[in-house]
Amino acid sequence: MTKSELLEIAKPILFNTEMVQAILEGRKTVTRRLVKPKYKKDEGGFQVCTNKATGERWIEKHDWDEGSFDNPRYVNPPYRKGDILYVRETWMGTGERFYYKADGKHHKLDNLIGDKPFFKWKPSIHMPKTAARIFLKVTDVRVERLQDITEEGAVAEGVKAYGSNNCSGTSARIAFAELWDNIEKSKYEWRANPWVWVYEFERIEI
User: Fold this and answer.
1) What order do you get walking across the sheet with 46-51 strand by strand?
2) Pairing mode, if any, of strands 135-145 and 11-14?
């Protein structure tokens, strides 16, 4: 598909600079995002059912509520299997001339774009759709507790295990936990063990 065709159907997803670099290097093939609305700590788990009319839906069951099994609450994931996503990342530029912080070439921009006070890195949330350069296809969606992530799953998240000189050891899982807490600076940190969507994806070449 061409870029214009992808842009017509793509949904936005935000990544920080470190994770964009991991995607570009082929190290990141999965991402975890908080289930919203954010649920209470004592709420029950999830179960997947299939509705012929609407497709897969996610059901939340309240273990403490006796009637919840008869009247479950449906929660759809923001992204579904087969969805096309475009990555929003830290950027700068105007018109059709864009630069990306993840490229690691920003120290050379003075010679390329000139007016330094005008061109400043802008947050990924403000990146226009036309500036998108990375497109992903969702290949699988599931829901699980954050701490259920395995070592292999942490590696697929694009993080690297610490070196042997680090007192935390060489676990990619530990590195992911610290990355999560750095991004999700709230009560939904690693130790809170919140429910998360797990999106597996593959990069689309254009």
Assistant:
1) 46-51, 55-60, 73-75
2) unpaired
